[in-house]
């Protein structure tokens, strides 16, 4: 791998380590921040909603900027706005400004997503596994920050240092990114690669629509679980220790799942079976958790649910979406994550209404969400073209197609031989431009994927040029 690409990937992954800090940094410091803002804890918690507002407002704009003005420009916007949020928040004493800074953090999140996911798909061919690996860095950040906050609290140190650590990392990361030529780090993509997956229009519509729905369900199924599992477990009679331990097992399963998925996708091209299997496991696990009253069984199911639902499924879905329409990666990434943001907004409202209903199993709704996700996985299984498990297998497929082409070319040259005889008898010129135009027009009409028309026409034109040379060689 070129050094510039390695430096760029280091920057991207470090950004998401910092993003892991950023996702929980306000909640981890909320009590101290509420005192600093001279507000109640209720008012301070309202500031958290600013992050969601910032994401919703900015995703489409950042996607547009990413596609039209470049990935590096969008990265710089995201990194700079995150740095401002991290540096200014612990010094700020105004609730209004705190809300504005939270919105800025949401904008930063949307900018990083809109640049990073498309860029990872363009740096090399392991875009899916690299995208899944981002989830591991987020989890690592979420694991480290609480320890930093605890250390500062136990040693009576300023809480703002927990903001300064990621801020320092972000400043160093900016310094690493600025001299990089991101365009040179991206692979030179052949024009044919920009056409997207070659599948029929109905399949493309069904798959892309399903994947946008999955942008909602993949986020909703995790939010539902993490917000309610502890309360639900206590309600059905589990001890407080077990109730909290279920969430820890979920987190451990998530990290294990991410590592497993990255290894599988790097070593084998198993995106479809991995996606379907993990969605099936997710549905099975959340159903078990909802119906079980056995603490040990629920513990195993919680780990399996984290392993499957939070093991990188969202990233696999997004990478598949980008492969369908590779010319608009930034806008597609933004749109996909808007659906995730809608889940962040709507799940608390839905569950808040459900919990008011007596005798309602609050986790049952998560089964429905997981089932919809599983249906999308089945759509992917049916609509995506067959996968080759390795480069060797891909070349075997091409060799089989080439063998069929050779046989067809031999048939064509036999027909050309007959044409030549008729031309000789009628004293007709070998070159017939009108006939060649008709052939090329016919190629355009019969090519289903219209983006491939110029390539198919060029291939057929070459065949006709060689056919003329063959006729000229005949006596």
TrEMBL record:
It comes from the Bacteria. InterPro entries: Chorismate_II_sf, CM_dom_sf, CM_II_prokaryot, MFS, MFS_dom, MFS_trans_sf, MFS_Transporter, Sugar_transporter_CS. Residues 385-475 form the Chorismate mutase domain. Residues 8-389 form the Major facilitator superfamily (MFS) profile domain. Its main location: membrane. One of its GO terms (molecular function) is transmembrane transporter activity. SUPFAM superfamilies: Chorismate mutase II, MFS general substrate transporter. GO terms for biological process: chorismate metabolic process. It is a multi-pass membrane protein. It is found in: Cell membrane. PROSITE patterns: CHORISMATE_MUT_2, MFS, SUGAR_TRANSPORT_1. Keywords: Coiled coil, Membrane, Transmembrane, Transmembrane helix, Transport. PANTHER family: BYPASS OF STOP CODON PROTEIN 6 (PTHR23514). Belongs to the major facilitator superfamily. This is Transport protein.
